[in-house]
Specification:
The complex is a heterodimer of chains A (124) and B (135).
Chain A: H1 4-10, H2 19-43, H3 50-57, H4 60-88, H5 92-121
Chain B: H1 23-54, H2 56-67, H3 69-96, H4 103-132
Helix pairs in contact in B: 1-2, 1-3, 2-3, 3-4
Classes of the chains: A mainly alpha (124), B mainly alpha (135).
């Protein structure tokens, strides 16, 4: 007897489908403490000047949490932007191009922020 | 999709313009708008970090922009968007557990997200101004 359970177990023709849903929740949960850390780091150092700001962001723990934030936030952003694009952009070519640009944008942010954080962290 | 003839030009499914605006609907839209705008805010953060990594001169330029009136207004809006999106996200995580989906709870959640975000944003800026010690 064929029941809908068969389709659930086999997950249909694609054999997958919930990774994006799960990854968006995973990064959302990670983003809460990470974002609070980044925002409070910046707010508590308002107006301290270049040297003290660099000293703070060069601390290993701060640099590592900043890197975690940038990666988690970028993945979350890419999934969210993708969702919006898939909902509103219906022309196939334009949709693919928009998704491509969203990925490039997310990757650029990770690389640019990551490089800056490491440069500050290594004190160069 | 069905290829059958649509006899009158009726809408195939009800959409936004059919409904009377409700707070829960507005907060759902706000979650999207804030999420998309935070992508731009992320770009600003990247600029600030690169400036900090580049040197005192570049950092001074970035700081001067963020200290200006348009810079502060942008930061204020981005901080509000961030807090609204975060509270809205926590609301979604609660919903993911299958709880809080009844009519009364979603109304309470919507108000809590809106009022909580306004309160926390103002609080954050008050703390910031206290630390800065001046306007």
């Amino acid at each position: 007897m064929a029941t809908p359970l068969r389709n659930v177990r086999g997950m249909g023709a694609a054999h997958r489908g919930t990774e994006t849903f799960w990854r968006q929740r995973l990064t959302a949960i990670a983003n809460v403490p990470l974002t609070l850390f980044v925002v409070l780091s910046i707010v508590t150092h308002i107006g301290v000047g270049y040297d003290e700001m660099r000293l703070y962001f060069s601390r290993p723990v701060v640099a590592i949490v900043m890197l975690a934030f940038v990666i988690s936030a970028a993945i979350h952003m890419r999934i969210g932007l993708g969702e919006i694009i898939e909902d509103y952009v219906h022309l196939n070519g334009l949709k693919v191009l928009s998704l491509l640009l969203a990925t490039f944008f997310a990757a650029s942010l990770v690389l640019a922020c990551g490089f800056a954080i490491l440069k500050i962290g290594f004190g160069v | 999709m069905s290829q059958g003839k649509v006899e009158a030009g009726r809408p195939l499914s009800p959409h936004l313009q059919i409904y009377r605006p409700m707070l829960t609907m507005m907060m759902s839209i706000a979650h999207r708008i804030t999420g998309a705008s935070l992508a731009i805010g992320f770009g600003l953060l990247a600029w600030w970090l690169i400036a900090l990594a580049a040197g005192p001169q570049q950092f001074w330029h970035a700081e001067a922009f963020f200290a200006s009136i348009p810079g502060r207004l942008l930061l204020f809006l981005f901080s509000w968007a961030l807090i609204l999106h975060m509270l809205g996200g926590i609301r979604h995580l609660i919903w993911d557990t299958g709880t809080g989906l009844d009519k009364k709870s979603i109304e309470i959640f919507a108000w809590a997200t809106l009022l909580g975000s306004i309160t926390l944003t103002i609080l954050l800026w008050l703390v910031g101004y206290c630390i800065r010690g001046s306007l």
